[in-house]
Every structure is written in C-alpha cells, then in structure tokens.
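For the sake of clarity, the format in which proteins appear in this thesis is described at this point. The record quoted next illustrates the convention:

___
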Amino acid sequence: MAKKAKSEEEGAPAEEAPKSRKKLFVIGGVVLLAAAGAGGWFFLKKPSPEQIAAAEAAKAKKPATFLEMKDMMIGMSNGGQQDRQPVMKIKVVLEIADAKASEEVKPLLPRVEDAFQVFMRELRPSDLEGSAGMYRLKEELLRRVNLTVYPAKVDAVLFKELLVQ
C-alpha cells in the first residue's frame, strides 16, 4: 500500500505536465496569430505608389515663401581679451512652407530678432570658423526661431550676408 500511495503521488505531477504543455501550445498559437495579424495589418496599411505620388505632387505645388529679416549688427563676445570687441553683421532670410504660415510669423519677427541677438552676443569669432561653424549657427538659429514662432514652423534659415570683423 505504501508503494501505491507513492505512485499515486508521483502520477499527479505526470498528469500536470501534459496540461501545462497544452496550455503552452495554446498561448503560443494565440501569440503567433496576433503577430501574423499585426504584420498583415502593417503590410496592407502601406500606401500605394499612386498615393505616394499624389502626396509628393501636392507638396511640389506649394511654393515656399521667403521672409526677409532686417540687417542685424551684433557685438560678439571677445573671449576675455581686452582689445577690440568683434562685430557681426548678418542678414537672414527665413524659408517657410506656405504663405499662411508666413503671415503667422511676421508679427513675431521682433521676438525672433531678440532670440537671435541674445544667442549671437555670446558667440566668439572662433565659433564661426569653417563650414561646420556656419552649419551649427544655422541649426541653432533654426531651433530658436521655431521655438519662438510655435505653432508655426520655419523650414530653413538662410544667410544672405554674414560678416565678422
């Protein structure tokens, strides 16, 4: 009898193993079906070439507008040197996607000029050396103008003139 009791106790875990295996197959099947469904949905959601071409054509039809800012003459940081303070003369043009956004930006130009001047006063002439310095200046001005004119968006900051003396 003692052996029968042991075999009955040992039999219980043996029966649970097939149940857990079945449960694992069911859960695995559900996960597999969900993944296949999600993949199919993403594949079918992809726009057709005609839709892509129509969207690109709509973008191409809208000409960008350019908004010229006033010339700015800014005294730059001299980096702790006691001699002459360097001066920057800059003329900036803002590229904006459409005329509506351009009209939203125009009343905010004094704020944009202020943001530019506050930033550029802290620059040193060495910050503008080479094309990398010019690119960093352009990117920083674009970031600042977009923060100032939000929710409108400026696409690019273009330099018409930049002189450092």
